[in-house]
Specification:
The complex is a heterodimer of chains A (227) and B (419). Chain A has helices spanning 47-54, 77-87, 103-108, 111-114, 123-133, 149-161, 179-196, 207-212, and strands at residues 5-16, 19-31, 36-41, 62-67, 70-71, 88-91, 167-171, 199-203, 215-220, 223-226. Chain A has 227 residues and is an alpha/beta fold. Chain A has one domain (5-226): P-loop containing nucleotide triphosphate hydrolases (Rossmann fold, 3-Layer(aba) Sandwich), CATH 3.40.50. A 6-stranded mixed β-sheet of chain A has the order 6-7-8-3-9-10, with helices on both faces. A 4-stranded antiparallel β-sheet of chain A has the order 2-1-4-5, with helices on one face. In chain A, helix 7 links the parallel strand 7 and strand 8 (199-203). Chain B has 2 domains: 2-49 and 285-416, no CATH class; 64-272, no CATH class. Classes of the chains: A alpha/beta (227), B alpha+beta (419).
Chain lengths: 227, 419
């Protein structure tokens, strides 16, 4: 089966005042549909750079990135942005919810640029269903400031799922959560992979969580040392 | 439209910040509306005054020579007499010798008390001919104007100006009533329509506050001399005509007619006691000054809006810095750079549009308040509203673009690292 994602000799170099810094040094990786992968490594190993590169938020300095067989480095900003909006859902460590909007509107924000997923379900209903699914039906109409960190992260997961993406990228999703909430969020992400066949790639420092995932990619100084 | 609605919703999420950002535009547009209104009031007032003097007329005014002015200022115990100004003979010569003059109308001001119903008024008494109403385009509201028969018989009849009639007869129609002018009874035969102030200064500036008597009657009943009594002295001035109005057939002929009249009078007068003016020429001069004034106003308005625009830009830049995380999120959710530009430009445009609309209301209210204080009728330039709104929207577009482009160029990865 063709992989959802294929990286070939991908490098990422940042121009810094003291000279160029190579964040990724020739990465060759494949990610398949339905796979749950944890990316681990020390600070500065290139984990987040790899995640944002997979999320089409930054481009490789060299090498090729295929998403569902399409070469992404030849796409223009519109094509990349639309692919990102429809196919990729993000979950961040610091949630990135808009404080002035209630949780339903925060979830609906995901469809602002990507549009509706095309399954015929009205967006508002889908947002409600997703919030119910992450266990927040009792929080409808609440704003992020009224929620706990665990609840905010669950809103962020609901938002990531609104457009029906095939890839979920999570950057330290449990980093700001206590153990119990962290476990709950991890379970949610796992179920997305197991029950819905979504590809989940999670960057984490938590080795215990990483060990629970189906696959672990270990980075050191911008290179894959275990895959 | 969808973009503007979204921009509005985003602005409403930060009401205070949006309000502060719009303040510059509100006051900028308000000052534009207010300034344009004030300049329009001034313009219409001046044009109205000129027009009421008659744009096809040449005005010949008697001017008191400096020699007589000095004499009047001196404290003297001697009686004296002086003679100056336009004479009846001058009028005949002008009528006979200046071509294309359709009519010559004299106006003689008499310093007489006017009394009616025991009310003494200091309204101006003007001796003139029947041609006055036509040449000065001053219509009769009721009754009739002076007729040739009145003059031929030197009848004591008068026609009251609009204000004079209300002042002397506040509760009744003046027609058929009697007023005493300089102690002589005059029958009121007509009341004039309201005309408004004319551009000329002095006694003839307000034609509504005047009583018109036949020119010939003014001489037959009051003599040729105007007498001013001092302490045991008399100052007698002989001034036959304060003003002569020459109606010219076409405006092309105004300047040649004025030149001929000036030459003729200069030859007949050995002192500088006559001045010839052409209201049309004054109007042209005024319009030139008006154009300069408008440029000054437009520059001031542009500076106001520039200041407002810079304010918008600063607030939008601060806004952008504050919303870095949101910009990163929107990019992660699939926004293109162009959509981020549209978002910010849309917000600044909506701010300026609303600021412009509010500014128009504030400007109109300010103009009304100034009008009420200065007791003038407020006039708005019809195009000033769409102009101000258009300029404020353009200001939003122009000054919103830089912050918008900066926002779109933000690296989403860095933006998302902002907590």
């Amino acid at each position: 089966m063709d992989p959802l994602i294929r990286l070939q000799e991908v490098r990422k170099t940042y121009a810094m005042p003291g000279g160029d810094v190579q964040a990724l040094k020739g990465i060759d990786l494949e990610f398949h549909e339905g796979e749950f992968t944890s990316i681990v490594g020390t600070s500065g190993s290139g984990k987040s750079t790899l995640l944002y590169l997979l999320g089409l938020l930054t481009e490789p300095s060299d090498g090729v990135y295929w998403f569902r067989g399409r070469q992404t480095d030849v796409m223009d900003d519109l094509e990349r942005s639309r692919l990102r909006g429809r196919e990729i859902g993000f979950v961040f460590q610091s949630f990135h919810l808009v404080p002035q909007l209630d949780i339903e509107r925060n979830v609906l924000l995901a469809a602002r640029y990507a549009g509706a997923p095309g399954n015929g379900v009205p967006l508002e209903r889908r947002a409600t269903e997703l919030l119910e699914r992450v266990g927040l039906s009792h929080r409808f109409g609440h704003r992020p400031v009224e929620l706990s960190n665990g609840e905010m992260q669950r809103v962020a997961i609901a938002r990531a799922l609104l457009t029906g993406p095939s890839l979920i990228l999570a950057d330290e999703p449990t980093g700001n959560l206590d153990e119990e909430n962290g476990a709950h969020v991890f379970e949610l992400l796992t179920s997305l992979s197991n029950d819905e066949g979504k590809t989940v790639i999670m960057v984490t420092h938590d080795m215990q969580l990483a060990e629970k995932s189906r696959r672990v990619v270990r980075l050191r100084n911008g290179e894959v040392i275990e895959s | 439209m969808k973009l503007l609605v979204e921009a509005w919703q985003n602005l409403m999420l930060h009401k205070t910040r949006s309000g502060l950002a719009a303040l510059g535009i509100i006051f900028g547009v308000a000052s534009v509306i207010c300034m344009l209104s004030i300049s329009e009031v001034a313009r219409q007032d001046v044009i109205g005054r000129m027009q009421r003097m008659g744009l096809n007329n040449v005005i010949v005014d008697s001017v008191k020579p400096e020699r007589i002015r000095r004499r009047e200022r001196q404290e003297s115990d001697e009686s004296w007499s002086a003679r100056y100004g336009v004479t009846r003979t001058d009028l005949e010569i002008l009528a006979d010798n200046v071509p294309v003059v359709e009519a010559v109308v004299p106006m003689r001001v008499l310093f007489k008390d006017v009394v009616a119903n025991l009310h003494v008024s200091d309204i101006t008494v003007v001796g003139t001919t029947p041609g006055y109403a036509d040449v000065m385009e001053h219509a009769v509201a009721s009754g009739r104007f002076l007729s040739p028969v009145d003059g031929a018989k030197a009848d004591p009849v008068c026609v009251l100006g609009h204000t004079a009639a209300r002042e002397l007869f506040p509760l009744q129609s003046p027609l058929g009533e009697v007023v005493k002018i300089g102690g002589i009874h005059f029958d009121v035969v007509g009341v004039m329509d309201r005309k408004g102030q004319t551009g000329s200064g002095g006694l003839l500036a307000d034609p509504d506050r005047a009583a018109y008597v036949p020119f010939e009657t003014s001489f037959a009943r009051f003599g040729r001399m105007q007498v001013r009594l001092g302490q045991g002295t008399q100052e007698m001035t002989e001034l036959e005509v304060n003003r002569a109005v020459l109606r010219v057939a076409s405006s092309d002929q105004l300047l040649p007619v004025a030149q001929i009249a000036e030459n003729l009078l200069e030859r007949r007068h050995d002192q500088e006691d006559v001045a010839v003016t052409v209201p049309f020429e004054l109007l042209s001069e005024h319009e030139k000054a008006e154009r300069i004034f408008r440029w000054v106003m437009a520059s001031l308005a542009a500076i106001s809006l520039l200041v407002g625009g810079v304010g918008i830009m600063n607030i939008m830049l601060a806004n952008m810095a504050e919303r870095r995380s949101e910009i990163g999120l929107r990019r992660a959710l699939g926004a293109t750079r162009a959509e981020i530009v549209s978002l910010f430009v849309g917000e600044s445009t909506v701010l300026c549009l609303l600021g412009g609309a509010l500014g128009m209301a504030v400007g109109a209210a300010l103009a009304q308040a100034i009008g009420a204080l200065a007791q003038w009728e407020v006039v708005y330039q019809p195009l000033s509203f769409p102009f101000a709104l258009g300029v404020s929207v353009l200001t939003g577009l122009a000054f919103g673009t830089l912050p918008a482009v900066k926002a779109a160029r933000l690296d989403p990865v860095l933006a998302l690292r902002v907590e």
